[in-house]
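Exercise: predict the fold of this chain.
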Amino acid sequence: MRVGVAVGELAGKVEGLDDVVGQVEAAAAAGFATAWWAQLFGWDALTTIAVVGSRVPGIALGTAVVPTYPRHPMMLASQALTVQAAVGNRLTLGIGLSHKIVIEGLFGYSFEKPARHMREYLSALGPLLRGESVSYQGETLKAVGTLAVPGADTPPVIVAALGPAMLKIAGELADGTVTWMTGPATVADHVVPTITKAAAAARRPDPRVVVGLPVCVTADEAGVRELATRQFSMYGTLPSYRAMLDREGVDGPQDIAIVGDEASVTSQIQRLADAGATEFLATPFGSAEDRARTFELLAAVARAAVGLGAGGPELDE
């Protein structure tokens, strides 16, 4: 299991591109496998990756995730391939539906039948990223044409998929999934078997399963879990995450966050590897002191994580 880290706005206040470059330089120097950006309401994730990736070599780069509804698949494919060329083919393109409250409430698009939308979107996006000619007409979108970006390899595509229908689509048409607010029991009993079965049925390789969770190494676990209750409470109200929290049998995001001292956090990360995660996407949170302590521990885990997983070497606690 590889270990990646969230950067950009998720890693704290960002004053400018130099701040983001510094975050990624630190992640690369520490030995993290991947630096991940979320598309929020500020910096454009893919544009930022193109700029930062041209200045920071080596480390893999990914979006977790770019919402699909505001971007036609031909436009997203063109942007993603351009970023691939700019960063030397280190991009993983993570995409997702977002949520009804955003897509309908802020953007004014219909969120009707989101799984159908994602199936149709990937049916057009995948061939476009592979440089194939596309003539696709679905119920929700049309895409006709082809793209050519010299120097760009086809980026892996992972989908924010949690429910059975979305996991099946991701297994059939993408390279894996990236989760958020989803605990180890749910990863082991639901996410991994569902997407793996779908990929096998479609004769695709075993999928990537990138598990994202907030993490804090601290001496004050109770206080940090109280902070997590305040900071992440919104996720407990969104239907897709609420379903995963209920499946895990927990009350809210504060119970799914990885919190504790170095030994406890390491053990909790090991549990994700044992559940079948192929990569842990860590989002450090807490005080400045706790964030620094968390980054140090995560870096050590990242350097030790080659081959980590069920049947592989365990981390030293």
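Check your answer against the key: The longest helix spans residues 184-201.
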